[in-house]
Amino acid sequence: MAQNGYYIRMKKRVLKDLFTASFLFISICTLAFVSCQKAPRQSDVSSAEKLAEPSDEKPGIKKVVPSWHPSEKKICILFGYGYNDKAFTEETISALGAKYGLDDGTSQGGLILPFVFPDDFRDSRIMRLADKLEDVDLAGVITIGAPENTNYALAKIEEEWDNHLPYPVYSFFPQDDVLGIEATSNFVVDRAMEGTGISSGDSSEGGEEGSEEILQTRIEGMDKILDSAIECMLLSEQPLPGNKELMAHVQRIVGPSHTVSRFSDPESGLESINHFVIDSNVKTSK
Predict the structure, then answer these.
(1) 80 — phi, psi (to 5°)?
(2) What is the pLDDT of residues 60-88, one digit of tens each?
(3) pTM, 2 dp
């Protein structure tokens, strides 16, 4: 009987060990199966994340993105005497186009609307400037070397706004009548030597340039001054106030390499409110 009891205990122990081993085996298989099921899902998530990440690879065809944005507003730049030669205008307009964009007559056009006198004016009539700008939403007008009677064209544009333009007009080195260009510009900048910039010959509203002698000026760094003037227009979005601070605005536009002072009438000695002269660092040719 004792021997039978011993065999019975051994049998129970073996069965218990077999049960434990089977349980461990099943648990290990279950864990392995679950791991195999999860692995593909983890791989899928990683692939999705990789697809969402921006690629450092450059596309085969590069899309050239312009540095400027389309603009409904336009800044008209008139290139007149002393600044209307082909080399200067092409280089300057190209540089401005790269930075601000050129108007192409569409809603996707750039900021700059350039005109070269007399090439862009039929019959060399500057009065046609008013017609060219009639339907343009302007942010400003900049004239460089404005020809005679430009002030009449600007006055005609002013009439459409009850003589109160909502945008500024900057005039640099005009060859127009002094009082006329002063009256139709936010400010006028002239050369210090031979200050007035008046063309010899008669001026009339209906007439154009005749036998007058034009003194052409070319000041160094005009491209930088022009760029600074455009930036000032974009920041101010309106005519500069005609007060004692106007000269400080002009000084910032022309830069530290030029000294600004007020224009004095050679006959009366009176100083102009909005007419300034800068140092004589100019190149002059006839």
Answers:
(1) -110, -150
(2) 444 445 688 999 999 999 999 999 999 99
(3) 0.70
